[in-house]
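Q: Please design a sequence for this.
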């Protein structure tokens, strides 16, 4: 299922970015290091909010970020927990589940209504956008950025794809 692959990619891309960030965070000015952590914390808070909405549970957060900046280890743990949940959910989701519509209140008070499929697409695009912002923070400081394209992920996850391509092109 494409959503399952996409969330496995999100999990992999988050891990790639966090590994590079962890090694290089001390090489950035404090303001950039804090931005790196906070922008990724924002994505995991939003993931958490929508996970709660998908489950019909009370939301853990009142806003789209936390007041306090988490430690890097706390951030990694939160992202890993949400990513694992989303991969599992995407692997189990049926066609009927993807069409289920949920109504909710955004953290700014506005009302919202999305299908589960739309929620999943939002989490994928939202996470990608903010991973890009965090990676840009590495780049502007002359640090290594992740090579985290979906195609790279697929070829690492399924190395046989390269051999099949060789056979098809030959």
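A: Design:
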């Amino acid at each position: 299922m494409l959503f399952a692959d996409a969330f496995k990619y999100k999990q992999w891309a988050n891990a790639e970015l966090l590994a590079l960030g962890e090694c290089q965070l001390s090489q950035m000015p404090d303001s950039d290091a804090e931005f790196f952590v906070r922008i990724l914390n924002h994505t995991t808070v939003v993931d958490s909010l929508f996970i709660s909405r998908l489950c019909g549970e009370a939301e853990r957060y009142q806003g789209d970020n936390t007041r306090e900046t988490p430690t890097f280890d706390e951030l990694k743990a939160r992202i890993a927990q949400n990513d694992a949940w989303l991969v599992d959910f995407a692997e189990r989701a049926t066609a009927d589940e993807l069409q289920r519509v949920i109504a909710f209140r955004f953290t700014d008070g506005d009302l919202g209504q999305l299908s589960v499929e739309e929620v999943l697409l939002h989490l994928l695009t939202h996470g990608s956008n903010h991973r890009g912002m965090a990676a840009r923070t590495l780049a502007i400081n002359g640090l290594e950025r992740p090579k985290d394209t979906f195609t790279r992920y697929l070829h690492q996850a399924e190395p046989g794809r390269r051999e099949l391509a060789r056979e098809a092109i030959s």
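Q: Thanks. Anything notable?
A: The beta strands are 101-105, 111-115. The mean pLDDT is 95.
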